[in-house]
């Protein structure tokens, strides 16, 4: 009679074998590519981007605090800033997508085994580890170009001039945020928002898509 432990061990071995096979790699890659497509579709649509709460959740802490100040002194600027970042999302999504797709296509058996054995969200975490810094570096110059086109940084600094609260936020007695600083924060939001969407897709669909791989 085969013991329960032996059955479980055999099952785990078979899942790992399946995961590291061409079939396992194919399933994981397709799964992640579906999540990327969902994010790209949202980022390509200005209104869909503005209405997506996972993008809002990705707003960096410093930019959230600056916006809180703006809400008190120039609330219309916050709306404009969000709209311009949405335009930057549309403008940069074709830069982000190939980086993400290349990372998915470079997944190996070790990555897939980690995904199968990990919690929901592990696939997105691995993708983030592989591409996050590259994505931010790639899109930040384009985000800055887009934001400078509208002069949003100058408008924000004019609205915030003389604000003691801003001194505390930026440190060092600064009373302005430069365009590079704003572009960096906006780029972080764009990248992390995209990962939030991909992770949400993974969590919502992993049972049906990864079921054959034992997850």
Round the Cα radius of gyration to an integer and report it: 21 Å
Spatial separation of the terminal alpha carbons = 27 Å
Order of helices and strands: HHHHHHHHHHH
Counted up, domains total 1
Q: Biggest sheet: strands, sense, closure?
A: none
Total number of beta strands: 0
Residue share in β-strands:
under 5%
The chain-level structural class is: mainly alpha
Give start-end ranges of low-pLDDT stretches. Answer: 1-14, 167-173
- Helical segment count: 11
Shape: elongated
Mean pLDDT: 82
What is the helix content? over 70%
Please describe what this structure looks like.
Helix content is 83%, strand content 0%. The protein has 215 residues and is mainly α. Helix 2 runs antiparallel to helix 6, helix 5 runs antiparallel to helix 6 and helix 8 (122-150) runs antiparallel to helix 11 (179-210). It is elongated. Residues 1-14 and 167-173 have low confidence and may be disordered.
What key attributes describe this structure?
215 residues, mainly alpha, elongated, disordered N terminus
């Amino acid at each position: 009679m085969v013991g329960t432990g032996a059955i479980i061990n055999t099952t785990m071995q078979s899942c790992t074998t399946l995961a590291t096979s061409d079939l396992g790699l194919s399933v994981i890659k397709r799964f992640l590519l579906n999540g990327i497509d969902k994010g790209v579709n949202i980022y390509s649509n200005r209104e869909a981007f503005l209405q997506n709460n996972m993008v809002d959740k990705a707003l960096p802490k410093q930019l959230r605090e600056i916006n809180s100040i703006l809400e008190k002194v120039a609330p219309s600027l916050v709306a404009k800033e969000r709209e311009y970042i949405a335009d930057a999302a549309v403008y940069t999504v074709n830069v982000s997508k190939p980086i993400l797709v290349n990372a998915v296509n470079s997944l190996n058996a070790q990555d897939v085994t980690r995904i199968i054995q990990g919690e929901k969200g592990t696939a997105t975490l691995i993708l983030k580890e592989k591409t996050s810094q590259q994505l931010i570096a790639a899109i930040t110059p384009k985000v800055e170009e887009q934001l400078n086109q509208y002069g949003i940084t100058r408008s924000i600094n004019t609205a915030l001039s003389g604000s003691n609260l801003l001194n505390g936020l930026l440190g060092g007695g600064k009373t302005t945020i430069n365009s590079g600083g704003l572009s960096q924060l906006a780029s972080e939001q764009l990248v992390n928002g995209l990962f939030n969407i991909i992770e949400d897709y993974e969590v919502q669909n992993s049972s049906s898509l990864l079921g054959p791989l034992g997850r």
